[in-house]
Design brief:
about 325 residues; mainly alpha; MetI-like fold
């Protein structure tokens, strides 16, 4: 297992290198002058002064040299400084990292709390009216953009149906858990409901496939209770492909929090990236995307490790 994890960690380096190239090129191809946006329209500098600023920020070099300088800093653990605030990029990311991770974690809890029981319920009642209703609900959930759902929740729930929800005032969990959860409940629900539709469909299809296996029929023939057959024999094996989906979706959630954090004014990495894109703050955008890519790759490694614990047939040399 240790050798497998070490190999996977090594293979993620080329992936991150490719991501770094793509994000570096894309952010620099966005129209607009970063320094001009930084100075605004009220500040007029001579061409010599502008050139000196470009030299200070390293923007006077050709793009390949700028990339080499940046990736060299990354290799040393230095993500550079923000063009807007002159603060270390890594410091700003780490300060906002807990917000995005908490939102992702809570969204996964919401999704699993909905998807697992509903998916099992639908599989056990295959072909009935309730099964059809669940499948239609799942299709609707897949069709709803999470930002639209977030907007609808903001318009209709706070102050009317859900007066405890607080918007735009973030409180850290360990400072005040109750206040924190009232802030995070709507963002987590916005992300979790859409994700629940995806997971629920996989739970249903996977459980239906397992219920048709010989060992499940044998367990029933031996007189085991249906609940024991489902929980002990069927559901555990059915969760293997579901874990794959959850692992991938956890990575996507970190990227999906970008819009949700902006809608609910949460001080997470996503909102930091959006503001940096609007301001052409190249180091911040590059740093945030690289961290999200790293977390996405690590989530896939965690999924592979979980396989060995969920399925005893899976063994890594």
């Amino acid at each position: 297992m240790t050798g497998f994890i070490a190999t996977r960690l090594l293979t993620m380096l080329p992936v991150l290198w490719g991501v770094s190239i793509v994000v570096f090129l894309l952010i620099h191809l966005i129209p607009g002058d970063a320094l001009q946006l930084f100075l605004g329209t009220q500040v007029a500098l001579t061409s010599a002064q502008m050139e000196e600023l470009r030299r200070l920020f390293g923007l006077n070099k050709p793009l390949p040299l700028q990339y080499i300088d940046w990736i060299g800093q990354i290799a040393r653990g230095d993500f550079g400084v923000s063009l807007r605030t002159s603060r270390p990029v890594l410091t700003d990311i780490l300060a906002r990292f807990p917000v995005s991770v908490e939102l992702t974690f809570l969204a996964l809890i919401v999704a699993l709390a909905i998807a697992l029981p509903v998916g099992v319920f639908s599989a056990l009642r295959r072909g009935t009216a309730s099964d059809a209703a669940v499948r239609v609900g799942g299709l609707i959930g897949l069709s709803i953009p999470n930002f639209w759902l977030a907007t609808m929740l903001l318009l209709f729930l706070p102050g009317r149906v859900l007066p405890i929800a607080s918007i735009g005032i973030y409180v850290r969990f360990f400072s005040h858990p109750i206040a924190n959860l009232t802030v995070m409940v709507l963002p987590a629900f916005s992300l979790g409901v859409v994700l629940a539709a995806v997971i629920m469909r996989f739970v249903r299809s996977s459980l239906l496939e397992v219920l048709g296996q010989d060992y499940v029929r044998t367990a029933r023939a031996k007189g085991l209770r249906e609940r024991w057959v489902i929980n002990r024999h069927a559901l555990r094996n059915a969760l293997i492909p579901v874990i794959t989906v959850i692992g991938f979706q956890a990575g996507y959630l970190l990227g999906g929090t970008v819009v949700i954090e902006d809608v609910f004014a949460l001080p997470g990495m996503g909102r930091l990236a959006l503001n940096a894109i609007a301001q052409r703050d190249y180091p911040v955008v590059q740093g945030v995307v690289l961290i999200i890519a790293l977390l996405f790759v690590l989530s896939n490694i965690v999924v592979d490790v979980l396989y060995a614990y969920v399925d005893p047939r899976v063994r890594y040399g």
